[in-house]
């Protein structure tokens, strides 16, 4: 069992939240079994652990999926009175928990609460026959939470999960690059302040509505990151425009702020996107006209330009290098949560040069839905 030691209240505000990595991302979904099949078949994840009635947990079923260092948990309620049903009714399938591994749960939780975080679960032990971990959680934007997980010497995924082994076909994803949150109008700065005050993040880059706009819609965005930039959380808010922006459409259908997308990193985006398309993944359309001028802006890259165009991948460059990226369509019928696939070749930016093409692609999707 992990050792526990709680920081005195007088010291908590001066302590820090000892974040080590993103431990896992949990999505609450309407049918976890079917969702697990989708993520295995389409995105190539392996199913590595399961929790449910067969493991002694009777209120939910949870499937743990893994590819590279990315862990997704897909969870569904098993009873009509479960509070998870309220969440799903309001939001549909989406991210509930961005969970961090920390060195000491009690100290991290106390520090976070002392600095302004709202507690959701006090520190407690999760035990099973093969060991225990210690866990707590706090609230972030919308109905999303951050769990703190102290693993100690625990070797499994989490207590309560049984080992499972259903292989997917690996598509080359190896880690989470960043996680993007959409928040309400004029709430971006307050949530950036939250991550600065509670987690000691700093602003890495920002984009205003002159950078991210079309003739009809616009948004503002700031990227908050830890010191090592291993955890990067862009935060978007809608900006005024002639019509409804993609951020406002998200908030309308999600009924509040929430995680817009998770960016998954690959070292070979040509291979990854080709595999994903073959598996049935649907991506935002990039018109052929995009490639008439992109190479003048980006210059030489190591990848085959014709393959980049044929796979409809976006390309951008900054002073440190270039990146390639592509965004899926929403992964459910509500136009909310989606994925990004990204390959970084020196660049540590977020594709500013692609904002125009991206926004126009999203607007075409909005227009088809009648929501622009």
Topology:
Elements: H1 9-12, E1 19-28, H2 32-43, E2 46-51, E3 60-67, E4 70-77, H3 83-91, E5 94-102, H4 105-114, E6 119-128, E7 131-139, E8 145-150, E9 162-166, E10 173-182, H5 188-199, E11 202-207, E12 218-225, E13 232-239, H6 246-254, E14 258-266, H7 269-279, H8 294-298, H9 305-310, E15 314-318, E16 321-327, E17 338-345, H10 355-369
Parallel strand pairs: 1-4, 5-8, 10-13, 14-17
Antiparallel strand pairs: 1-5, 2-3, 2-9, 3-4, 6-7, 7-8, 10-14, 11-12, 12-13, 15-16, 16-17
CATH superfamily name of the largest domain?
2,3-Dihydroxybiphenyl 1,2-Dioxygenase, domain 1
Structural class: alpha+beta
Report the sheet with the most strands, covering strand number, pairing sense and barrel closure.
9 strands, mixed
Portion in beta strands:
35-45%
Query: What overall geometry do the principal axes of the alpha carbons give?
Result: globular
Tell me which CATH architecture of the largest domain applies here: Roll
Q: Helicity range of the residues?
A: 25-40%
Distance between termini? 53 Å
| Beta strands, count | 17
The CATH class of the largest domain: Alpha Beta
N to C succession of SSEs: HEHEEEHEHEEEEEHEEEHEHHHEEEH
Radius of gyration: 21 Å
Give the spatial strand order of the biggest sheet.
6-7-8-5-1-4-3-2-9
Give the domain tally.
2
Q: What oligomerization state is this entry in?
A: single chain
Number of helices: 10
Query: Can you tell me the CATH topology of the largest domain?
Result: 2,3-Dihydroxybiphenyl 1,2-Dioxygenase, domain 1
């Amino acid at each position: 069992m992990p050792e526990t030691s709680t920081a005195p209240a007088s010291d908590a505000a001066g302590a820090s939240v000892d974040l080590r990595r993103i431990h896992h991302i949990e999505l609450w979904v309407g049918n976890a079994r079917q969702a697990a099949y989708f993520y295995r078949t389409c995105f190539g994840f392996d199913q590595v652990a399961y929790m449910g009635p067969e493991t002694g947990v009777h209120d939910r079923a949870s499937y743990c999926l893994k590819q590279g260092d990315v862990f997704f948990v897909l969870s569904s309620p098993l009873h009509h009175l479960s509070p998870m049903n309220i969440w799903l009714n309001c939001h549909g399938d989406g991210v509930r928990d961005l969970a961090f591994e920390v060195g000491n749960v009690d100290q991290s939780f106390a520090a976070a609460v002392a600095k302004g975080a709202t507690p959701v679960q006090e520190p407690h032990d999760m035990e099973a026959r093969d060991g225990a971990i210690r866990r707590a959680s706090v609230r972030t934007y919308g109905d999303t939470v951050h769990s703190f997980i102290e693993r100690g010497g625990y070797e499994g995924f989490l207590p309560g999960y049984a080992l499972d082994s259903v292989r997917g076909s690996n598509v080359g994803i190896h880690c989470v690059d960043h996680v993007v949150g959409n928040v309400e109008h004029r709430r971006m700065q307050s949530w950036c302040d939250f991550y600065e005050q509670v987690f000691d993040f700093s602003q890495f880059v920002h984009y205003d509505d002159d950078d991210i706009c079309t003739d009809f819609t616009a948004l503002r965005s700031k990227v908050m990151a830890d010191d090592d930039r291993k955890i990067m959380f862009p935060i978007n808010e809608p900006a005024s425009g002639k019509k409804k922006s993609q951020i406002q459409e998200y908030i309308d259908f999600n009924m509040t702020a929430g995680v817009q997308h998770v960016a998954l990193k690959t070292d070979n985006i040509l291979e990854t996107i080709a595999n994903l398309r073959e598996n049935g993944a649907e991506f935002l359309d990039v018109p052929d006209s995009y490639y008439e001028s992109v190479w003048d802006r980006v210059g030489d890259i190591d990848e085959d330009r014709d393959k980049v165009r044929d796979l409809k991948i976006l390309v951008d460059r900054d002073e440190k290098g270039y990146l390639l990226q592509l965004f899926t369509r929403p992964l459910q019928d509500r136009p909310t949560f989606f994925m990004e696939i990204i390959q970084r070749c020196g660049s540590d930016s977020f594709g500013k040069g692609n904002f125009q093409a991206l926004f126009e692609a999203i607007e075409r999707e909005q227009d088809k839905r009648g929501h622009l």
